[in-house]
User: Fold this.
Amino acid sequence: MPESSPPVRRSLFLHAPIRRGPRRMLEQMLALVDDDTPADGPQGPVAVLERRLAELLGKESALFFPSGTMAQQTALRVHADRLGRRTFAAHPQSHLDVWEEQGYNAVHRLRLRRTGDPHELMTAADLAAAAGEPLAAAVWELPQRDLGGLLPTWDELGEQVALVRATGAAAHLDGARLWEAQTYYRRPFDEIAALFDTVYVSLYKSLQGVRGAVLASDSATVEAARVWRQRLGGGIRDAWPLALAALVHLDTLAERMPAYREHAIAIAAAINADGAARAHPDPPQTPMFHVHLPAGRHAVERAGQEILAEHGIQLWGRVRSASEPGRSAFEVSVGENAMEFTPDEVVGLIHDVLARAR
Ligand SMILES: Cc1ncc(COP(=O)(O)O)c(C=O)c1O
Assistant:
């Protein structure tokens, strides 16, 4: 959003500035420390966070990274070096391919085998075809953000992972939004993580920290990842503010998530009953879904700016273009911000957007 954007008073967008202002975050972080809390070492916030996440995910060890981008490329590099294979499979809409300037290749000389249809989830058949060439790893993004938070069923996921692992390849979880995925699978986090050799979770998405990531795995893999973290400049000392910010919501997030999912389902149902726009998937599987609009991206962006200026309401982080002209979409990811909007109010706002976008 441009610097000159009007102030946001209410927002449907998970990462709206209203809930992430520095003062509010610092107050929450302060509540977790006292005069004796060390910045570093085994009792410092980074080590505490790593232990807490290793335990939650049922892994031997976990390692802080400054970004998920670095954590995931590192995980794939470690798997590739261990197996002596350079190719990994991932969905065409994977963050690794779309948003990382092909770092897996530029930095690590890895090759991506794009697997599955860009607008559908990967299937076992897609993975079987990809595994025709020996894979170092396959990546599952749960939920698949750019498909509106879609997820394979638990049985499908198990079948896919087993198929890939039978070829000797590693299974890696892009769990940037694992808390969202868990609301659909309704299984303990460690049961979900047990399917995978390496698991990355984000510290700043639903956990609402500042930045950062954690990679969890067996101890040997984590130690190999630690070397790469250092090589890539990610072994930063004094990462404690990032770890502390992530610890703020760690205890309470999982219990709040089902209510977010229910609210997402209610909002999506109201949108689809109204019919002016279309919510997908229907019903949402997680607290996130897409709203598809019969109006082009630029007109919708302008309408959103007007609504923000007039009412202080932010409706999205970004508007996505569509292959069909005159259409666009935006993501709703329900957290505390979106809980403040009734389903009818969201429908009314969509009508307002469409009226302005004409
Ligand atoms: C699904 C997914 N994976 C990985 C990442 C990378 O995380 P980071 O921004 O910490 O590099 C993101 C960030 O948006 C993401 O959405």
